[in-house]
Write a structure and sequence with these properties.
The complex is a heterodimer of chains A (275) and B (286).
Chain A: H1 2-35, H2 47-60, H3 62-94, H4 96-110, H5 118-125, H6 129-153, H7 157-165, H8 170-207, H9 213-222, H10 226-254, H11 263-274
Helix pairs in contact in A: 2-10, 3-4, 3-6, 3-8, 3-9, 5-6, 6-8, 8-9, 8-10, 9-10
Chain B: E1 12-21, E2 24-34, E3 39-43, H1 50-58, E4 65-70, E5 73-74, E6 82-85, H2 97-101, H3 110-119, H4 135-147, E7 153-157, H5 165-182, E8 185-189, H6 193-199, E9 202-207, E10 210-216, H7 228-243, H8 249-269, H9 277-285
Parallel strand pairs in B: 3-8, 3-9, 6-7, 7-8
Antiparallel strand pairs in B: 1-2, 1-4, 4-5, 9-10
Helix pairs in contact in B: 3-4, 4-5, 6-7, 7-8, 8-9
The chains are: A mainly alpha (275), B alpha/beta (286).
């Protein structure tokens, strides 16, 4: 019994630790090379120096101001873009007429990279908050829209027919069959668009901003603070990873029925059975 | 023999029923009367129109010509008295077993849902997701879902086609016992002639959109695959399906022979099996 418990524990430990092995080794090599003087610190500071720079920023409070500004921009832009994408996707997915009216326009606009609109956006909004929120919202809109539309359209017609035979009304068919059936696909769109949101925000903040993490990096360039630049880049990576975990958490929560997301539940059960 | 129960089952009357898809007739002028409470099997080759006939009876398709009367009243729209059980179950994976059974029902249906799940032997799985069930269990859920509203007409569209042989026999027994108890009219579309002979009082052989043969089946229930009457009727129905097919006479003869020898074989080992006519033909032609 104790041995089984121990083996499960070590299994779980391995599952949490193993993904960090490669990043850790890379950092180690990097630090050693820096100490040996093989990497000039002016071009790429040692990980310890970067960590120190981050610590200073955190202590002065600068880090939290920029971080919350960036997070707010990403969050607001994401909410606007995702809710518009979801609504339009549901509309065009359900109504043939809405699809005819809107889909080809969306497909045309989709091919414009949001960042190509920066000059125009600066003319419209200046370098205020609206500009960046607008860019993020546009970038988020299309992945959510496309995946919602596709999710609705790829629902098994057999299930819709079954709904009809079993006397469901159109509202029950939409809420009971169409939307739950499209949810996995919608969540793929959400996850993808969270990544897009950060990418657009990075560029947006570096080109025209006076706050945010992108600004922090650009400002550091002026003063040749390589450590802060690299720290900002790492911050983006961490934020991206964080929002991806958030989206995955959402998948686990919203798709308990999906075979892909039942692994955890099974693990929990076996843990309870053994303890 | 059959529980003739006019108050629980519906009678069906088909008058000159015709269905064409894009000008190509699938069913031509079918006249048929099915009394309430009967168990009718429809067999035939793929594309003979048997599934279309079932969809017409459920109201999912609209006849090109002719009419269907359900207990005397002409059928318009989806047939409210009927429930279909599909081959692929058509259960919603995002609802639990119990929620699937009660789909679309209002009020306090949960006790009734648990009761029908008990009838199909799955009440302890009520809270599970569909993905956690085996193929046979899913079809039991589909059956429970069809039964919960106490339908007067049960349309079975190859409901056991995807199941393994042993599960199929269990399901046939289950369907038979529920039919005997509840007395709904049953229409079973199947490829499996032995299944038709096991369950139905009447076997219609459909061919090119017409009823080619109409067999009465008065074998006593429960029917055993090894019995000589069973084997005889199975062979006869098979022959009428295969024989009427022009141009492939060469493989007809051994095919029937193969199925006959299979049924003899069943008698000797005592274990029912459901070798399908199609698979026998395949074996012979190799």
């Amino acid at each position: 019994m104790a041995r089984i418990k121990a083996s499960i524990l070590s299994h779980r430990l391995r599952r949490t630790l193993l993904p960090w092995l490669v990043p850790f080794l890379l950092l180690l090599v990097w630090q050693l090379l820096s100490i040996a003087g093989l990497i000039p610190s002016r071009l790429l500071p040692a990980p310890s120096a970067i960590g120190l720079a981050g610590l200073h920023l955190a202590e002065s409070g600068e880090l939290w101001t920029h971080l919350s500004v960036s997070a707010a921009r990403a969050g607001v832009g994401f909410l606007i873009g995702a809710s518009l994408g979801l609504t339009s996707g549901v509309l065009t997915g359900l109504l043939k007429r809405a699809e005819l009216l809107l889909d080809s326009s969306f497909q045309m606009l989709r091919n414009i990279p949001p960042l190509a609109m920066i000059p125009l956006v600066i003319l419209w909004f200046g370098i205020g908050e609206e500009a960046r929120v607008f860019l993020v919202a546009i970038g988020v809109f299309f992945p959510v829209y496309l995946n919602t539309f596709n999710g609705i359209r790829s629902i098994d017609p057999g299930l819709l027919e079954m709904g009809r035979v079993y006397g469901l009304n159109p509202w029950q068919i939409v809420t009971g069959i169409v939307l739950p059936g499209a949810t996995p696909s919608i969540l793929v769109g959400v996850r993808f668009s969270l990544g897009v949101a950060w990418i657009i925000l990075i560029v947006g903040e570096q080109i025209a901003a006076n706050s945010g993490i992108g600004y922090l990096a650009m400002n550091a360039r002026e003063f040749m603070q390589t450590d802060i630049i690299v720290f900002s880049i790492i911050l983006y990576a961490l934020l991206g990873k964080f929002s991806d975990s958030l989206a995955r958490g959402l998948e686990f929560k919203l798709l308990p029925w999906h075979p892909n997301f039942q692994r955890v539940a099974r693990d929990e059960r076996s843990k309870h059975a053994l303890s | 023999m059959s529980p003739f129960t006019p108050d629980t089952g519906t009678s069906l009357q088909l008058d000159q029923l015709t269905k064409a898809f894009g000008g190509r007739p699938v069913l031509s002028s079918i006249d048929l009367h099915i009394p309430a409470g009967h168990f009718v099997a429809i067999v035939g080759r793929s594309g003979c129109g048997k599934s279309t006939l079932l969809r017409l009876l459920s109201g999912l398709e609209i006849p090109t010509d002719g009419a269907i009367r359900v207990s005397g009243a002409p059928l318009r729209g989806v047939n409210q008295q009927a429930r279909i059980m599909f081959q692929d179950g058509r259960l919603l994976p995002w609802k639990t077993v119990l929620e699937n059974v009660g789909l679309g029902l209002r009020g306090d249906w949960r006790p009734k849902g648990l009761e029908v799940l008990r009838q199909v032997g799955l009440q302890e799985r009520a809270g599970d997701w569909i993905a956690q069930l085996s193929g046979g269990q899913r079809q039991r859920v589909a059956l429970a879902k069809a039964l919960i509203t106490r339908p007067r007409l049960m349309l079975l569209d190859e409901p056991l086609g995807a199941l393994d042989a042993l599960t199929r026999i269990e399901m046939q027994q289950l369907i038979e016992s529920l039919w005997l108890k509840q007395g709904f009219t049953s229409i079973l579309v199947t490829h499996d002639v032995e299944e038709a002979v096991t369950l139905a009082d009447r076997i219609l052989v459909l061919e090119q959109g017409r009823v080619a043969r109409d067999f009465r089946n008065e074998l006593p229930r429960p029917r055993r695959r090894g019995d000589s009457g069973f084997a005889h009727l199975t062979a006869e129905v098979l022959e009428s399906i295969l024989h009427n097919d022009e141009g492939s006479g060469a493989i007809n003869e051994p095919a029937i022979h193969a199925v006959n020898s299979n049924t003899h074989h069943n008698k000797s080992n005592g274990l029912g099996n459901s070798v399908r006519p199609g698979s026998s033909v395949a074996t012979i032609s190799h």
